[in-house]
Design a protein that fits this description.
It comes from Vararia minispora EC-137. The chain has helices spanning 2-7, 11-17, 149-153, 158-164, 170-177, 189-194; strands spanning 36-39, 42-47, 61-67, 71-77, 83-87, 92-97, 105-109, 114-117, 122-126, 133-139, 147-148, 185-186. It is α+β, with helices and mostly antiparallel strands.
Length: 199
């Protein structure tokens, strides 16, 4: 279907290929596990061209984050899209590092407000409260991609990682890699202690 939608010459032709029910995406109860990332700190649900064909040709996609108390969408990038991130019900701790030489910007995203994470920038969202949090991330591309920084960095050859970290040995790199949780993670110790949560 996605291939046919990409080859359709007009929006009218794309509409002919889609059933009415394919114009709706359920973030609370998605029809598939594709685009769903679940970890100890909560989950994110992405609607992209991979699992929501109606976005094909429209240049948009969206992710909804459901972060538990102290939950964090760990540092990551979107290689093919800029993100606008809207906090629904709690003040999120956000941060962004756009490139070498740029300063780090930490942003408190209050309920009802939004921030921008430029395409390719390393950024994160953390729920520093003891309540459930929700955010809405809109993208200016139907396939923004996602690259979790820590989790993917350790996918490089261990000797390269070790050299980059100041000469660590392959076993030391393996030991570090074993400590890195899958996203969505539990956040900082201060929050976990305040909310009485065990890592």
């Amino acid at each position: 279907l996605v291939a046919s939608l990409r080859q359709a010459p007009t929006e009218v032709d794309r509409f002919r290929l889609l059933r009415d029910d394919q114009f709706l995406f359920d973030f609370v109860n998605p029809a598939t596990s594709v685009g769903v990332t679940t970890g100890a700190g909560g989950r994110t649900v992405a609607a992209t061209s991979e699992n929501f064909p109606a976005v094909v040709g429209n240049g948009v996609s969206m992710t909804i984050g459901f972060l538990g108390p102290c939950g964090m969408n760990s540092p990551h990038t979107h290689p093919r899209a800029t993100e606008i991130n809207f906090s629904v019900n709690t003040t999120l701790r956000g941060g962004v590092l756009v490139e070498n030489g740029a300063r780090f910007a930490e942003i408190d995203i209050a309920p009802g407000s939004a921030t921008v994470f430029p395409q390719g920038a390393i950024h994160f969202e953390m729920n520093p409260s003891c309540q459930e949090a929700m955010f809405v991330a809109g993208f200016n591309g139907e396939d923004p991609g996602v690259n979790q920084v820590a989790q993917r960095y350790f996918g490089l050859p261990p000797d390269i990682v070790g050299a980059t970290l100041g000469g660590l040995g392959v076993q030391q790199v393996a030991d570090l890699e074993a400590l890195i949780p899958d996203n969505v993670i539990l956040g900082v110790d201060e929050c976990l202690q305040r909310c009485n949560i065990q890592r």
